[in-house]
Specification:
The complex is a heterodimer.
Chain A: E1 15-19, H1 23-36, E2 40-44, H2 47-53, E3 61-65, H3 73-80, E4 91-95, H4 100-108, E5 111-116, H5 124-138
Parallel strand pairs in A: 1-2, 1-3, 3-4, 4-5
Chain B: H1 3-36, H2 40-59, H3 63-82, H4 87-109
Helix pairs in contact in B: 1-2, 1-4, 2-3, 3-4
Classes of the chains: A alpha/beta, B mainly alpha.
């Protein structure tokens, strides 16, 4: 069983696989992540699309909305973790509602942090970078 | 601040407010149907769409609209939970939906 709490990540954050079902949110996140963050991002409407993208795209970070139709964020991550290539790729969730019990379950699945929605588009990229750097410091 | 980002943000905000009347119309349609006939499915849909409006308005920086939608969302959640629409709740929902509509029209006019 790999230790998902300590992925090896001493590299810059570049590629992100992002899933969000609401188009309004996806479009504003796109400019926040690309124009402000300078990240290379692939976008999905739901978890099923993520599983499809994952066949050809291996990102540095997974960024999933928790509540999505067809397949939600936690289920998607659970499915992806079955693939050895995705077993250790860090993830960040986004949600409006976060329960402490869920947070501990998410962390056990290798979720670095949960970003509270609604997010500030001006700060989204910085928040991700901070989460990324914090984890880099913690890894051996 | 990145000027390309600012330009795109302004354009996205404009698109968003252009699409608001259609979103409000959808809420009104659901609310009208709910007043005619109670349906757990319709209240669920209305609640979810109001929740989305609250979140997206906030993300796009339309704070008044977001806070009006947040109030409506909270009331709809309560009504959803008790699974019944009282005369008092009917009045309150109509009033809050009116406020959401007003806030939405102000974002369109402010462009």
């Amino acid at each position: 069983m790999p230790d998902r709490r300590a992925p090896i990540m001493n590299k810059p954050l570049v590629q992100i696989l992002y899933a969000e079902d609401e188009e309004d949110i996806r479009t504003i996140a796109q400019i926040a992540l690309e124009d402000l963050g300078g990240f290379a991002v692939k976008y999905c409407n739901n978890g099923l699309e993520v599983l499809e993208q994952a066949k050809t795209f291996v990102p540095d970070l997974l960024l999933f909305d928790v509540m999505m139709p067809k397949m939600d964020g936690p289920t998607t991550l659970h499915e992806l973790r079955k693939n050895p290539v995705f077993a250790n790729i860090p993830a960040v969730f986004m949600t409006a509602k976060i329960q402490p019990k869920e947070l501990s379950e998410y962390k056990a699945m290798g979720v670095l942090d949960v970003i509270q929605k609604p997010f500030d588009p001006m700060r989204l990229a910085d928040m991700l970078r901070l989460i990324w750097e914090k984890q880099c410091e913690g890894s051996p | 601040m990145n000027s390309e980002f600012e330009r795109k943000l302004a354009s996205l905000r404009e698109d968003y407010s252009k699409n608001l009347p259609a979103k409000i119309e959808e809420l009104e349609h659901l609310w009208n149907s709910l007043q005619q006939q109670w349906s757990a499915e319709v209240i669920d849909d209305l609640h979810r769409k109001t929740h989305s409006l609250n979140g997206s308005a906030s993300t796009y920086g339309f704070r008044k609209l977001s806070s009006a939608a947040a109030q409506l969302e909270a009331l709809l959640r309560a009504v959803h939970k008790i699974n019944h629409l009282s005369a008092e709740h009917k009045l309150q929902i109509s009033k809050l939906l009116g406020q959401v509509k007003l806030s939405a029209s102000k974002t369109v006019m402010a462009r």
